[in-house]
Design goal:
The protein is α+β, with helices and mostly antiparallel strands. The protein contains 4 helices and 6 strands, in the order H-E-E-H-E-H-E-E-H-E.
């Protein structure tokens, strides 16, 4: 994975996490005056009606800022919509919402993958041959192996399943130079 792709994936996870905190606070009427992706100097910012949204130089984290932590805030310290003045359950919801958002996002991705790509089947016995090399002197082609064949056994020895079958076939072929091997093939 390239560095930029890794940073992009990390940024998405951070945004989802911080959005969990932010939305949990907002849905309860708790003030949140900053939403930031990254740390360090501000690269870009937008001042909304109640919240400053920012992207910062170091994309290795993020934060949701509450007026409780801001000494320059003009909200009175005893205001009921400050995080510290809310009941402990409200605060626990805001604090845990980041992790919950990440879990929901992970399940969403798994569901999307299962719906679009499918769920892997249990490994079938043998080795599936997806294609045959187009060279004119392909040993597999000369032996009559065709694309989508499944090699089940070599010289009467079952290959097994999954990666074990692939490794067993490879090892048998490598250990048998200039020797004819009898293949048991399943063909549709």
């Amino acid at each position: 994975m390239s560095t930029l792709a890794a940073i992009a994936v990390l940024a998405i996870l951070i945004v989802v996490h911080e959005l969990g905190h932010f939305m949990a606070a907002r849905l309860q009427g708790i003030y949140a005056n900053r939403f930031s992706l990254g740390f360090g100097p501000i690269i870009w910012k937008y001042q909304g009606p109640e919240t400053e949204y920012a992207v910062r130089a170091i994309p290795l984290g993020g934060f949701v800022g509450f007026p409780d932590d801001d000494p320059d805030s003009d909200i009175p310290p005893n205001h009921p919509n400050l995080l510290r003045n809310r009941p402990i359950l409200d605060r626990a919801i805001v604090i845990s919402a980041g992790v919950i958002a990440n879990l929901i996002f992970a399940y969403f991705l798994l569901f999307t993958q299962a719906a679009t790509v499918g769920i892997p089947e249990f490994s079938q016995p043998g080795v599936l041959i997806p294609e045959i090399a187009p060279q004119s002197s392909s040993v597999a082609q000369e032996a009559g192996v065709k694309p989508q064949d499944v090699i089940l056994a070599v010289d009467g020895q079952n290959l097994g399943r999954g990666i074990t079958a692939t490794n067993s076939l490879k090892q048998t072929i490598q250990q048998s130079p200039n020797r004819t091997l009898e293949l048991t093939v399943l063909r549709d």
